[in-house]
């Protein structure tokens, strides 16, 4: 009786171990790990640099005046399309028109005097060839002719200068574009000058835009001309624009905290 019990005591644990191992193996087959495989090959690692900037036209022209005067006419409005040579702004020509008229009158007078002296010189040469006048008289008329030629050239130069100043009272569009800003109105003063003239109007070609971006000095070394870029604009939240890096500045800009961009 005791031996049977002993045998039972030994047999029961063996049965439990077999059952546990069998359950573990069946459970392991049901919960197998899924592994994805791919062929080894060379690929490019994409490194992205994030930065903020501003969008601006690729080509933009500021219309300024080289003379000072009152604006008498503006032929376009902001948002209008302009073409090369189109009249944009007129400036009062009262102080430039009289000088042009005076220069024109001097040209006519000098040309008339030149024709007169030239006729006299031809007659003098004829008389000299016939030995009816002295050589001194011939030299005098030739000198008068040279002086008349010089006066005519000077008058024409003054006319060109006056004509150039008068033409500056009419400002023309230098190229195709759209008027993006108007800073003056009719009746206001157009301040001219060669070094710091006042901007009267801005014309830009909006068909080609560029983005000027401030990149941190730690990231700019990872950028090369020709790299592609993704551009996100607040006005188009669901649209991504693509561009190409066309230029990298050679100098850095220092910020208030001492860092550079």
From TrEMBL:
Key words of the record: Coiled coil
Gene Ontology CC annotations of this record: efflux pump complex
UniProt GO molecular function: efflux transmembrane transporter activity
Keyword Cell wall biogenesis/degradation: no
Coiled-coil spans in chain: 100-158
SUPFAM superfamilies: HlyD-like secretion proteins
Stored Pfam families: BSH_RND (PF25917)
Domain Multidrug resistance protein MdtA-like barrel-sandwich hybrid: 60-199
Protein name: Multidrug resistance protein MdtA-like barrel-sandwich hybrid domain-containing protein
Organism whose genome encodes this protein: marine metagenome
């Amino acid at each position: 009786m005791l031996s049977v019990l002993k045998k039972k005591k030994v047999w029961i644990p063996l049965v439990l171990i077999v059952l546990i191992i069998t359950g573990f193996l069946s459970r392991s087959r049901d919960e197998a790990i899924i592994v994805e495989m791919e062929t080894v090959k060379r690929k490019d690692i994409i490194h992205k640099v994030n930065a903020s900037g501003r969008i601006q036209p690729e080509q933009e022209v500021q219309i300024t005046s080289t003379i000072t005067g009152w604006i008498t006419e503006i032929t376009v409005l902001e948002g209008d399309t302009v073409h090369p040579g189109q009249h944009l702004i007129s400036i009062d020509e009262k102080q430039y028109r009289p000088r042009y008229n005076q220069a024109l009158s001097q040209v006519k007078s000098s040309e008339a005097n030149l024709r007169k002296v030239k006729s006299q010189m031809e007659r003098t040469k004829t008389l000299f060839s016939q030995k009816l006048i002295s050589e001194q008289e011939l030299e005098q008329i030739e000198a008068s002719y040279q002086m008349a030629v010089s006066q005519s050239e000077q008058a024409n130069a003054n006319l060109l200068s006056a004509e150039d100043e008068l033409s500056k009272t009419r400002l023309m569009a230098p190229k195709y574009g759209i008027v993006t800003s108007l800073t003056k109105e009719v009746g206001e003063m157009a301040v001219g000058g060669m070094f710091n003239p006042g901007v009267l109007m801005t014309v830009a070609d909006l068909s080609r835009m560029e983005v000027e971006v401030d990149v941190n000095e730690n990231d700019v070394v990872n950028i090369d001309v020709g790299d592609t870029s993704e551009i996100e604009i607040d006005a188009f939240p669901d649209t991504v624009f693509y561009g190409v890096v066309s230029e990298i500045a050679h100098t850095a800009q220092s910020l208030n905290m001492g860092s550079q961009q």
